[in-house]
Write a structure and sequence with these properties.
alpha/beta, 6 strands, 37% helix
Length: 164
């Protein structure tokens, strides 16, 4: 009855293309056809992501973005792409914030110096619990799911931080 989607890294770009191509047709028949959409470490240029964000929020009831400032794969992707920030990065100003998307900075969770920290979304018990609460109960915002999330008023707007 409900469709939940999780995209990771470059899969976020593929998901955006899928939603762009079929979204309007499906939405015309069924309304918002995605219940919970989770974007983990989106390896998408931040400017392009802002365009995609409109698609995500138009077709999904809830959108959650996990970003990690210590994700070495995204750091390399940024370097390869002439220092263009990725949507899954966390610069000193905080993660990307877009209306309708709950952005969560999980840098503290992905701080293993011997890891790429690119798959922490599927390895950390706290993050897996959070994903479960999103998918099974549809709880929003993050500090309603777990009290350890802290809301931060950043330059672009509100986002949440997940401490260790």
């Amino acid at each position: 009855e409900k469709v939940h989607l999780v995209a990771h890294s470059m899969g976020n770009f593929a998901l955006a293309e899928l939603v762009r191509r079929v979204g309007t047709k499906v939405q015309a028949r069924h309304g918002k056809f995605i219940d919970q959409l989770v974007l983990a470490a989106p390896d998408i240029d931040v400017d392009l992501f802002r365009d995609f964000a409109r698609l995500f929020t138009q077709h999904a009831k809830n959108v959650t973005l996990y970003a990690c400032g210590s994700d070495k794969a995204l750091m390399l992707a940024r370097e390869i792409r002439d220092d263009h920030w990725r949507a899954g990065d966390v610069p000193h100003t905080g993660p990307i914030v877009v209306d309708g998307i709950e952005s969560i900075d999980i840098t503290a969770v992905g701080s293993d110096p011997f890891s790429l920290n690119h798959s922490v979304y599927a390895e950390d018990h706290g993050l897996l619990k959070d994903l479960g609460l999103i998918m099974l109960q549809g709880l929003h915002p993050p500090d309603v799911r777990m009290s350890k999330f802290k809301a931060v008023e950043g330059i672009e707007g509100r986002y949440w931080v997940m401490p260790l």
